[in-house]
Design brief:
The chain has 2 domains: 11-46; 51-310, no CATH class. Helices cover 25% and strands 25% of the residues. It is built from 5 helices and 14 strands. A hairpin with a 2-residue loop joins strand 1 and strand 2 (7-9).
């Protein structure tokens, strides 16, 4: 709504002209806006992303197959993190995820993104994929062993025809480790640099992806963190001592069983500066969830932790 000279008006574009909306047009805009919100909420509920207090939060056909050895060792619930990118305006026919053109594009854009331009963003294999009515999934399937008889994923990357894409990850960033204490104790750590660095890569990829599918409006980046209560952050820049490097008390840990962090951006406004601003905000909120007041994946000059470059997902 625009207020000018004491009058309140909504404006609409008619071809090349912008005019005040009629009463019926205003009514239609409000009804359309409500439909968009309802459609988005319905989609999030079907994906089990809407309410982080729900017992099924984050669970879908792919995430339940993520593997982490601590589940077997300690009889815990599976911990994992989902990186979901959701167009605000969902269109079931936005793209054909199985077209050869799109698959070729994906193969060309599986790497090349900050802050690790030489590392693959996702495990891409045109001959090992799961095709469904609404999209396609590229799972990184672990080989079966005597202790691993069910199909399990190291990670996965899913793209739906409506423009939604999501990556799920567990053991690559969540793992147990002994810390120095008397006596030594085992803690479960979440690798901060890998968590934030991967989000950074995905945000960089998102600009190219949504440009490819012709979507330039608002996108919701939804980070879902599941079953991490009492876990401790690790994976710091050299400026910060690791929790397992020295120990003079109980390190800060996550007081939340599950939580979500939401960042929104306009594709048309995406730039390296904006992406870094989103990353900094994400890293700050993520760190606070684990009881850390400082963002420890950046050094004193504000540079991102170089150790992330050692992460090879291929």
């Amino acid at each position: 709504m625009i207020t000018f000279q004491g009058k309140n008006n909504y404006y609409v574009r008619h071809n090349t002209l912008v005019n005040p909306a009629t009463q019926s047009e205003v009514k239609e805009m409000f009804e359309y806006s409500k439909k968009i919100i309802n459609k988005l909420e319905d989609f999030l509920r079907r994906r089990n992303l809407y309410d982080d207090r729900d017992n099924n939060f984050g669970l879908n056909d792919n995430s339940i197959k993520l593997y982490n050895e601590i589940v077997n060792d300690k009889n815990k619930q599976l911990p994992f993190i989902l990186y979901s990118f959701i167009p605000k305006y969902l269109d079931e026919n936005r793209l054909n995820t199985t077209s050869q053109d799109f698959l070729d594009w994906l193969e060309m854009h599986k790497a090349g993104f900050e802050p690790a331009i030489n590392k693959d963003l996702f495990y891409f294999n045109k001959y090992q994929k799961i095709i469904k009515l609404d999209g396609i999934t590229f799972p990184n399937i672990l080989p079966k062993t005597e202790n691993l008889k069910d199909e399990s994923y190291l990670n996965y990357f899913e793209i739906l025809n409506n423009g939604f894409f999501e990556s799920g990850i567990s053991s690559e960033i969540i793992y147990p480790r002994m810390i120095k204490d008397t006596p030594p104790t085992e803690k479960t750590f979440v690798h901060l640099t890998r968590t934030i660095g991967y989000a950074w890569m995905l945000l960089s990829f998102a600009k190219h992806f949504f440009g490819k599918v012709g979507y330039y409006d608002e996108v919701i980046f939804w980070l879902s963190v599941v079953n991490v209560k009492n876990f401790v952050l690790a994976g710091f820049a050299e400026k910060w001592a690791e929790p397992f490097s020295f120990y003079s008390g109980i390190p800060s840990s996550c007081s939340h069983e599950k939580f979500k962090i939401i960042e929104k951006f306009m594709v048309s406004e995406m730039s390296e500066k904006l992406i870094k601003e989103i990353v900094l905000d994400l890293a700050s909120k993520f760190s606070h969830a684990f009881g850390e007041s400082e963002i420890k994946c950046f050094d004193k000059e504000g540079n991102f932790n170089k150790n992330f470059s050692y992460w090879d997902r291929r």
